[in-house]
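Entry 12.
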Amino acid sequence: MSTDFPKVDARTFIEVNCHCPHCEAFLDVFENVREVLGSDLRAENVDVEVTCPECLKLFIVENVEF
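Predicted 3D structure (tokens):
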């Protein structure tokens, strides 16, 4: 490959999305579940508590599917 072309870095962005079961707000809960995600970006029976930033009600993320 020629070195005459400019080089750049690419970035990956990960979102773990769900709807709040109380108000149906669409949320990215990645920060809440990042510690329980497996190398395949899945998790089962994790029961992570999340407080919806829209309605301020608590719900549980049970599983993360890929």
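Annotation: The chain has a mean pLDDT of 95. DSSP finds one helix and four strands in the chain.
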